[in-house]
Each structure stands twice: as structure tokens, then as C-alpha cells.
Amino acid sequence: MEVERIPEWSVVHGKVVVESRFDDGRSRTVRMTLAVLGVSDVRLAEYEWIGNEQMSWTLPGSGKQKCQEGEYRPTPPREDVGGPDDLGRADGLGTEVLLRQGRSGPSG
Question: Do 97 and 75 touch, CB atoms closer than 8 A?
């Protein structure tokens, strides 16, 4: 699962930098720049891995969001689907995705 390659297929990700890794080489802390509907944000994500079956994350830092938690559960590669299968896609092709998020601000 190469999180550095997300910008190759995700139009909202401008830059992804792995800041730290676990001993097995998997990403632990990742800083990413995103732009959605004209709103830019820099997020710091902390990842957890459960074998090859699941990857989850939390956002300890974000300029725009108060909180976010999510997880990917990779599914076997499909020959009839283009694009990456290894990190998942928010459209559900190649992964199951669960996302919980909140926004910052007084009502937040």
C-alpha cells in the first residue's frame, strides 16, 4: 500500500509525504495536501495496520477539520476495474471504506 502514489489517481490530493514508517516499511505518519471544491487543507494522518486485511487512520492535525477517522479494507484485485487496488478508492472499487469526520468551528 503505497500512500505516496495517491495523487496519481486522486484528483483531490496534491501532495503526500510519508513522515514516519513502521519497522516493516508501512506508513505511520503522513502529511497530505488536499483541495476539495476550492478549499485547500493540509492534514496529518496517523495510520494503523492490521495485517494485510485492514488499514485505519486518524487525523491528529488538520487546518479545516476537527476530526476524521477512517479505514480501508482492501479487496482482491479485479481485472474489470482500472486504477489501483492496493490502497483503495473512495468509490468502493477495490476496497471497502468507512469514514467518520467532523468539521471545525463553533457548531462543530
Answer: no
Q: 47, 55 in Cβ contact below 8 A? A: yes
- Which three cell numbers mark 33? 495536501
Taking CA atoms, 2 is separated from 16, 21, 32, 77, 108, in Å, by 10, 12, 13, 15, 32
pLDDT by residue (tens digit) across 20-57?
Answer: 999 999 999 999 999 988 889 999 999 998 887 788 88
Alpha helix positions (H), 9-49:
none
Global pTM value: 0.67
Q: What residues contact residue 15 under an 8 Å CB cut-off, 6+ apart?
A: 7, 32, 33
